[in-house]
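Write out the 3D structure for:
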Amino acid sequence: MERYDVVLPSGGRIDDHFARVALTPFKALIKVKDYMLGFRVLEAVNDSGRLGRIVLVGPKEVQDAFGIRVSNKLNDTGDLTKNIAMAIRDLKAMGDCTSRVAIITTDLPYIEAKHIQSFLDACPDSADICVPLVSKDEYLDRFPSAAGTFFKLKDGDWTLGCIYLIKPDVFLRILPEVDKAVANRKSKMAMAKLFGGKFVWKYLTKSLTSAEAVQRAETLLSCRISLIKNGPAEFAYDVDDINDYEYALRDK
């Protein structure tokens, strides 16, 4: 069973009001019930038995909190894409970098080892990029009344999970495109525009399918992409704001 190196981007910050409530400005150090989000993710990574070397990228405060739990740590640049690229280059410089690298954000309060295992098991060897696709129905079934951002397509309402499996050289090659996607990830219309005018129209008229979106992305990026449907809803619940935080505190 193949193992994969891991990048944990941990530079995410929250707004001042939320930080006063959570007692930290950093997402990875937010405490939900009896655990910090970043530690929850790290525990799932370690317990999965499928992941190898770990590189964490974050500010000094986050690095200090993780301490000896993670031996490979890099300083936050303030830019998510640059942070991931830097971590991948660091893994390659160590030698024997795995064929694909898992990228997992450290703001997931519900992630467990079994979720990582099921995702990796479903990733085809032929894909350059794998990402979980979570339906709105699956998400709301797991997290009733929770807020979420979904793309309304012809074949359903979908969102992506916060874990990716990608070939290192492919990620480094498509950095400009990744930058654009990251910059526009909170705007559904801006994301649609990245695919071109024809796809904006199809999105607006709800005639665009997830398969067509993948085909267009593969053409634009010159790589093979696999959307892993029925991805665990837990991958899609990240803590971005105080409402996400309060929901996680209430949830049993």
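Residues 4-250 form a domain with the Spore Coat Polysaccharide Biosynthesis Protein SpsA; Chain A fold (CATH 3.90.550.10).
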